Amino acid sequence: MTAPTTPPPARDTGLPEEARRLAAPWRPPGVKGALTAVIVAAAVFWSASGAGFSATALIEGAPAMGSFLSRMWPPDFGKAATIVELLVETLQMAVIGTLLGALLSLLLSFAAAGNIAPRPVYLAARFVLNALRSVPELIFALMFVSAVGLGPFAGILALTVGSVGTIAKVYAEAIEAVDPGPVAALRSSGAAPGQVIAFGMLPQAAPLLTSYTLLLFEGNVRGATILGLVGAGGIGLELTTALRLYDFGHLLAIVIGIVLLVTVIDRFSAAVRARLTA
Questions:
Q1: Is residue 10 part of a domain?
Q2: Which of 123, 145, 264, 269 could form a disulfide with 154 if both were Cys (CB 3.0 to 4.6 A apart)?
C-alpha cells in the first residue's frame, strides 16, 4: 500500500492575501450572480421607463439649456452685500440646526441602538426616525413658519427636526458597530449603564460620529438655501425672487456665492476628517 501523499505547500508570492485575491484569474459569475444582474437590469429598466427617462429628450433640450445659461451671463454683483448677508444667515442657520439636531440625534440614537435599548424601545425609536426621515424639510419649514412666523428661526427648527431624522439612525448604527469587548469588560466589572456608554461606546464611536456630523453640516448648508423658498430665512427667498423677476445676472451671482460657501465648508470638513483619520 502506497503512503498517502500530501499536497505541496502553496508557493509564497510575497503578496498580501488581498492582492493575491485580486490577482486571481477572472471567473464567470455563477447562477446567483447572473440572476442578480438580471434583477438589477430589470429594476433599472422599470425605473427608467416609469420615470420617463429619455436621453433623446435631453439631447433635444440641450439648446434650450444653453439659451438659459447664456442669459445668466455675466453675473451681476450689484447686490453683493445682500448676497453675503443672506449667505451668512444661511450659514448661521446651518450651524445652529446641526448642533441642536446632532445633540438630539445622539440622545435618540441610544434608544435606536440594538445593543443598548430593549427591543420595544428599539422598535419605537426606529419608527419615529423613519417617520421623521419620510417628511421633507420644506414641510417642517412650512409648519414652523406657521408657528413662529417668517424668518431664520423657523428654518433652524426645520433643520433641527430634519437632522434628527437623517443622522440619528446613522449614529445608532455607529454605536451598534463598536467592539463589544471593552463594553463587556466594563459591564462585568459592575459599571453602570451610563458609564458603559460614556467610557466603552462613545470613545470608539467618536470618530465616526464626528465625520457623520460634518457631513450633516454640509447637507444642512445646502438645505438651508432651499428653506428660504417658503420664507424660513436664508438665501433661498432671494434666489427665488431673482428667478421670478428674470434677473438672471443676480441669479448667477447668488449661485456663485452658494458654490463658494459650499466649497469652503467642504474643504474645512475634509481637513477635519483627515485629522481624525491620521
A1: no
A2: 145
DSSP label at residue 25: P
CB distance 219 to 162 below 8 Å: no
The C-alpha atoms of residue 138 and residue 202 are separated, in whole angstroms, by: 33
Whether residues 187 and 200 fall in one domain: yes
**Percent helix, strand and coil across the chain, each rounded to 5?**
75, 0, 25
Q: For 163-181, what is each residue's pLDDT tens digit?
A: 888 888 888 888 888 877 7
Label residues 186-212 b or e (16+ Cβ within 10 Å = b): beeeebeeeebbeebbeebbeebbebb
Q: In sequence order, what E strands does the chain have?
A: none
The CATH number of the domain holding residue 250 is 1.10.3720.10
Q: Same domain, yes or no, for 185 and 136?
A: yes
Whether residues 52 and 83 share a domain: the answer is no
Q: How far is the C-alpha of 208 from the C-alpha of 68, rounded, in Å?
A: 42
Structural domain total, the chain: 2
C-alpha 270/C-alpha 252 separation (Å) is 27
Q: What is the pLDDT of residues 217-276, one digit of tens each?
A: 888 888 888 887 777 777 888 888 888 888 888 888 988 988 888 888 888 888 877 776
The pTM of the full predicted model, rounded to 2 decimals, is 0.73
Cell 455675466, located at residue:
74
Q: Residue 52's domain spans which residues?
A: 29-71
In this structure, what are the phi and psi dihedrals at residue 273, rounded to the nearest 5 degrees? -65, -35
